[in-house]
Amino acid sequence: MGKAYLSIENLGVTFGHGPSASEVLRGVELRVAKGEFVSIIGHSGCGKSTLLNVVAGLVPATIGAVILDSEAVAAPGPERAVVFQNHSLLPWLSVRENVQLAVDKVFAGRKSAAERRDWTLHNLDLVKMTHARDKRPSEISGGMKQRVGIARALAMQPKVLLLDEPFGALDALTRAHLQDSVMEIQAALNNTVLMVTHDVDEAVLLSDRIVMMTNGPRATIGEVRPVDLARPRDRLAVAENASYVHARAAVIEFLYTRRAA
Ligand SMILES: Nc1ncnc2c1ncn2[C@@H]1O[C@H](COP(=O)(O)OP(=O)(O)OP(=O)(O)O)[C@@H](O)[C@H]1O
């Protein structure tokens, strides 16, 4: 693994104070290299979203720190774009305008209006949503809304892309298509990605490494499993690959035997 680009150092998060305080995370240590795809998996409520939210700057670290490209994370910022499970598109704007809004905010003063318009369309093209650019969010499917959310995040050119169960609310086929799109895009752009998921197959298919969390309270990283397979991967071909099968078995064993909830 190369030099750490994103570094989570002795991170602890406690919500509340005094007798009602709840310590959710303790001693979380993780280094992510540039261009790496890392998934976080663990039982419901262990603190996966909390961990991602600290990296996003949405939840403050109680102790420890998150360092991205040599800078400590202290607040949300476009260099750490987040895609949530449920889309967060503005209903009164078209697909194109939703992405354009983020592009205008991030690149105002750095790109001309024409460049910003082209960049918006380029990112909609990356997620295959050009055909629906004039539709409102209410006029497109859940999978299409997630595609737009991904386009909006990519359009900010983040240093790290944070995905919080981005495919969690989708049917299996739509989910598979979107996973393939994310793999293709990441192969082309070499994004650094941190993704929270519940889905073992999704984690193994997409990740360079899978971070397995222990159960909360005071959850931490129990084990990190590398998946030694070139990306992007073909979901049919990998199903019979020994590295894939072993990684999958190791994650299932961790979750359902050693960390049964
Ligand atoms: N802002 C908050 N204030 C108080 N408690 C919180 C807050 N955010 C999360 N928690 C608590 O922290 C714990 C971890 O929540 P978190 O959402 O990070 O878990 P998760 O692993 O992502 O769960 P799931 O897989 O079900 O989405 C839970 O007990 C939750 O109730």
UniProtKB/TrEMBL annotation:
Subcellular location field: Cell membrane
Keywords, sorted A to Z: ATP-binding, Cell membrane, Membrane, Nucleotide-binding, Transport
GO MF entries: ATP binding; ATP hydrolysis activity; nitrate transmembrane transporter activity
Broad class of the protein's primary localization: membrane
Organism superkingdom: Bacteria
Domain ABC transporter: 6-240
Record-linked Gene3D superfamilies: P-loop containing nucleotide triphosphate hydrolases (3.40.50.300)
GO cellular component: plasma membrane
CDD domains registered for this protein in UniProt: ABC_NrtD_SsuB_transporters
Protein family membership: Belongs to the ABC transporter superfamily.
Protein name: Nitrate ABC transporter ATP-binding protein
Protein species of origin: Caulobacter flavus
Taxonomic lineage of the native organism: Bacteria, Pseudomonadati, Pseudomonadota, Alphaproteobacteria, Caulobacterales
